[in-house]
């Protein structure tokens, strides 16, 4: 994975061409967004904080978007474990530090916020780490779904806890908290509101 991002404090600072397209996935429609340098964002289109497309151009032929679409198809089909598309997310220096650390988590590897905090050299910064993880703009490809609570609870996920559970299952982690209290808290919270995907992907013609 090529992480090409420049550090910016606000997403709107740079007036640059931005393209986007919507793609189907086993977990619902996703919106991919790219700059000339790399993938700027990836969200499920029903996420609450989905950015507006105002000022962006829809493109079905942009090479970065097409590479991201192809790699996501391969990932969902079980034919890929790592992504190679160039990334260009917008964030603060601290957010980029956290997002780069997320990119180093292997397929199926889980970590807590505290463990991630120690990885980036901020052992007492779990809460700040959680904020940066929650602002991850490139869902799945920057794998924030691999972060769970210290008590092994699912905690949050921008795409919703049902999808987080499905993503972890796809990577071989049948979610079951080690903590009885966390199991009670999470009981039923991660049931998909639609049929459990088989990840027989991509769909046939």
UniProtKB/TrEMBL annotation:
Q: Which GO terms describe its cellular component?
A: cytoplasm
Alphabetical GO biological process terms: DNA alkylation repair; methylation
Q: Which reaction(s) are listed as its catalytic activity?
A: a 4-O-methyl-thymidine in DNA + L-cysteinyl-[protein] = a thymidine in DNA + S-methyl-L-cysteinyl-[protein]; a 6-O-methyl-2'-deoxyguanosine in DNA + L-cysteinyl-[protein] = S-methyl-L-cysteinyl-[protein] + a 2'-deoxyguanosine in DNA
* UniProt entry keywords in alphabetical sequence: Cytoplasm, DNA damage, DNA repair, Methyltransferase, Transferase
What subcellular locations does the record give? Cytoplasm
Active site feature: 144 (nucleophile)
Q: What class of enzyme is it?
A: transferase
One Pfam family linked to the record: Methyltransf_1N
Report the domain of life of the source organism.
Bacteria
Methylated-DNA-[protein]-cysteine S-methyltransferase DNA binding domain ranges (all copies): 93-172
Query: What is this protein for, i.e. what is its function?
Result: Involved in the cellular defense against the biological effects of O6-methylguanine (O6-MeG) and O4-methylthymine (O4-MeT) in DNA. Repairs the methylated nucleobase in DNA by stoichiometrically transferring the methyl group to a cysteine residue in the enzyme. This is a suicide reaction: the enzyme is irreversibly inactivated.
NCBIfam families for this protein: ogt
The family assignment reads: Belongs to the MGMT family.
Anything else the record notes?
A: This enzyme catalyzes only one turnover and therefore is not strictly catalytic. According to one definition, an enzyme is a biocatalyst that acts repeatedly and over many reaction cycles.
User: Can you name this protein?
Assistant: Methylated-DNA--protein-cysteine methyltransferase
According to its UniProt entry, this protein's organism is Achromobacter insuavis
Q: What is the lineage of its organism?
A: Bacteria, Pseudomonadati, Pseudomonadota, Betaproteobacteria, Burkholderiales
Q: Name the gene for this chain.
A: ogt_1
């Amino acid at each position: 994975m090529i992480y090409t991002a420049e550090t910016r404090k606000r997403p709107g600072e740079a007036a640059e061409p931005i393209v986007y397209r919507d793609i189907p996935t086993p977990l619902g429609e996703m919106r991919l967004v790219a700059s000339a340098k790399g993938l700027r964002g990836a969200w499920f289109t029903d996420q609450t904080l989905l950015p507006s497309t105002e000022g962006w151009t829809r493109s079905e032929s942009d090479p970065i978007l097409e590479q991201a679409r192809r790699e996501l198809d391969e990932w969902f089909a079980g034919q890929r474990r790592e992504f190679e598309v160039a990334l260009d997310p917008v964030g603060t220096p601290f957010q980029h530090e956290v997002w780069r650390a997320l990119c180093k988590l292997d397929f199926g590897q889980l970590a807590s916020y505290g463990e991630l905090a120690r990885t980036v050299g901020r052992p007492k910064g779990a809460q700040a780490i959680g904020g940066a993880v929650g602002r991850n703009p490139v869902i799945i490809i920057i794998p924030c779904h691999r972060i769970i609570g210290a008590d092994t609870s699912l905690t949050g996920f921008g795409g919703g806890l049902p999808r987080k559970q499905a993503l972890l299952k796809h990577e071989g982690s049948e979610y079951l908290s080690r903590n009885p209290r966390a199991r009670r808290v999470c009981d039923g919270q991660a049931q998909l509101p639609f049929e459990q995907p088989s990840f027989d992907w991509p769909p046939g013609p």
